[in-house]
Amino acid sequence: MFFSRTLIPTLKENPAEAEAVSHRLLLRAGLIRKLASGIYNYLPLGLRTLRKVEAIVREEMNRAGAQEVLLPAVQPAELWQETGRWQIYGKELLRFKDRHQRDCCFGPTHEEVITDLVRREVHSYRQLPLNLYQIQVKFRDEIRPRFGLIRGREFIMKDAYSFHADEADAEACYQAMYEAYNAIFRRCGLTFKVVEADSGPIGGSFSHEFMVLADTGEDLLASCTACAYAANLEKAEAPAPAVSGDAPPPGPPQEVATPGVRSVEEVAAFLQVQPQEIVKTLIYETEAGPAAVLIRGDHEVNEVKVRNLLGATDLILAGPEQVRELTGAQVGFAGPLGLAIPLYADQAVAALPRMVTGANRDGHHLTGVNLARDVNPVRVADLRVVTERDPCPRCGRALTILRGIEVGHIFKLGLKYSQSLKATYLDAEGREQFIFMGCYGIGVSRIVAAAIEQGHDADGIIWPAALAPAPVVLIPISLTDAPTREAAGKLHDDLEAAGLEVLLDDRDERPGVKFKDADLLGIPWRLVVGPKTLEKGQVELRHRRTRETVFVPVGDASRFVREKLSQELYG
RNA sequence: CGGGACGUGGCGCAGCCUGGUAAGCGUGCCUGCCUUGGGAGCAGGAGGUCGGCGGUUCAAAUCCGCCCGUCCCGACCA
Questions:
Q1: Which residues in window 364-423 of A are less than 7 A from strand B by Cβ?
Q2: Which chain B positions have some atom within 7 A of a protein CB?
């Protein structure tokens, strides 16, 4: 590969539009260019890395017994209406009409299409199990695309769907995918963590996410410092608190005037109590009506847990008008006493012998409230977000909160789509059964960005060897020096003949420019050919990450690089 | 959708408050000379309807309005 003949428009300066490291470097290294918000062109080197990721994903998926297919990007509305998602999926679903005024969408995911295919073609238990995957362009009209390839609207995803005669077989496949995913991310050279995840609106009983650890990650995860427990913060379980031995307060709740004092901090300061003695009453609206959620003042509500407990699809915090209507007071003074809507309390609230709550009266709070004694029946559950102060729910040791970028997610889907789309098979006894399903996604283009978030320094990208657009860059110091030019040309040919991709920087540029670009591009190995070292029959080999430099005989360079690389790729 | 910021040659920016003599800097690009181990130097040159539309004015990159685009924060803590 010749630098001078390849479109690699590197940038000296940071583009104004890019903030995140990976976004900046993807643009500066000339790997991508933006066409519109959240929509990017992949340039030759960016595409090469993308293909590297795809190849690893393919190999491991095939190895795990999955078969590749390619499904359409444009899908008819009818299928989505059949599963009900035409209604449920919000504005993220890009909808449009074809020339016949038929409703269509650009696929954000392919459960409908694949299930439709399988229901048409699979009718017998003899055809199961089946694991079909594709590497496809998806479109999700994100509220706010950001960070370049990390949250684009158009992106490339590997999605696999498996079909089974029974749940046990689906679980075996889930396990196989779990292992395949570990292999994939390991081979990509990423530092990642597998976490328990909420299965979300896709449904299903359990699921895992694969998180690339990076400080810039959008996701928070709780990870045990001692055992293997790790979970998305949305999912992480809070330990049940010890029940207090303290007796409830002697008298009934006391109303105290707290004019203009509404936040937990203000109430704590005003009443001279600890935040953990105060209880926040959050009023939610759901499709099934309003509900109140009680959370300790020093805790945060976990809306995913609330949503799951209530079985609600729509869950939004009530606005000031609804709060007044339901509580009789403005926001800041809501409390559980006398509320005529369903009450839900976090288990930490239920463990409090006495608490301070709003009085449902402007400018007033109640002290000495006891949940069991004073309040209407309350459903108690784990409804809060865990913190680093909480112990691990499995082993009791310390938890730590990390940031990650979600690059993979595996779900056990169950019968959700096979039932709504009537995908059935006949079992050995001739009975019609719904097909059991699983689904498994990998953000292929996101991996490219995640690898950069994890691998970079002040000079540019540091690719894992497996993902680099090319493993070697070859820099001739001078093009006018015939021996240098010839030696570089020969090395280039030798390396390519040995099956290595090599980027020969044949541009008529000064060495400094080439060094800077080589660093920016993040190519793992740099071979420099120059008159000085050539006199000694040597070339210089430098490692991008460690900056370690060795001089090797010209004749040995090709073999040497190959050895170094295979060490890096295969340990 | 709410808040904030931005939009001036390919890229990064200044000029705008205080309208005219402001189309300017750096970099990149082209030509030539020179140079060649960490983004060299000199000389010459190409390239911009100042995001769009409308308004105010004798006069608009500059003031006003609308629109479009882009980025950042938020869209949950009572």
A1: 385
A2: 1-2, 6, 11-13, 26-28, 35-40, 69-78
E strands of A5-119, at which residues? 32-36, 39-42, 67-68, 74-76, 94-97, 103-106
Q: Which pLDDT score is estimated for A163?
A: 98
By percentage, how much of chain A surpasses pLDDT 70? 99
- Superfamily in which the A254-381 domain is placed by CATH: YbaK/aminoacyl-tRNA synthetase-associated domain (3.90.960.10)
Rounded CA–C1' distance between A93 and B52, in angstroms:
29
Contact predicate A141/A109, CB 8 Å: no
Answer yes or no: is A37 CB < 7 A from strand B. yes
Please give the CATH number for the structural domain made up of A10-236+401-452: 3.30.930.10
| Model pLDDT, residue A203 | 54
Q: Taking the CA of residue A1 as centre, how many other CA atoms within 13 Å lie in the half-sphere pointing to its CB? A: 18
Q: What is the mean pLDDT of chain A?
A: 93
Respond yes or no on whether ipTM tops 0.90.
yes
- Please tell me whether residue A188 adopts helix, strand or coil conformation: coil
* Per-residue flag: A280 CB under 7 A of strand B: yes
Per-residue confidence band for A202, with pLDDT thresholds at 50, 70 and 90? low
CATH of domain A470-570: 3.40.50.800
Within A 288-307, residues with CB less than 7 Å from strand B: 295, 300-301, 303
Is the C-beta of residue A31 closer than 7 Å to nucleic acid chain B? no
pLDDT of residue A533: 94
The CATH 3.40.50.800 portion of chain A extends over: 470-570
**This prediction's pTM:** 0.94
Domain limits, CATH 3.90.960.10, in chain A: 254-381
Q: Is the CB of A566 under 7 A from strand B?
A: no
